Structures are given as C-alpha cells and as structure tokens.
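ok trying this again, last paste got cut off
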Amino acid sequence: MYLHLGQDTVVLLEDIIGIFDLENTSISKFTKMYLARAERAGRVVNVCTELPKSFIVCVRRRKATVYISQISSQTLKKRTGFLQGISNLP
C-alpha cells in the first residue's frame, strides 16, 4: 500500500521508518543534526508549498530519504492505519 505525503508524492508503507512532527522534534539538537546531514547529502525532498508540519523518513534499497510535508504527522498516521485496515478486509 502507498501513503500520499503531499503534492504528487506517494511512498510505500513498508519503506516508512518514521513519521515525525516537525515542530516538536526539531527542538532536539540530534534531530537538527540529522536533518542538516540529510540536506547536505541531498536526501531531503520537500513536498509542500505551505508551512511544513512533518517529516517522514523512508528507506528504500538501503538509501534513506527524508520527505518534508505540509500534512500533519497525526493525519499521516491516521492514513496509514486506515490503509492497513483496508488491506486486512476479507
């Protein structure tokens, strides 16, 4: 199954490592360092045109990518549960 992150970007649910609230997690110096390193390495994809609310870490073929989204982490989390619930239907 796929998760829509914003704009025209979707990712496989199995590739998602974590969905994080940008406002709450960016307080940590470790999160800031991680995001800065990912940016320098060219692994950050901005998929929003408005104020970013979350970031999503995905790993595909041992390569991590960070997506910056305007969709809240709570909404994205709800979407993943909804999609997983549908896939379990008989």
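PB: full thing came through this time. Helices lie at 22-25, 29-40, 73-87.
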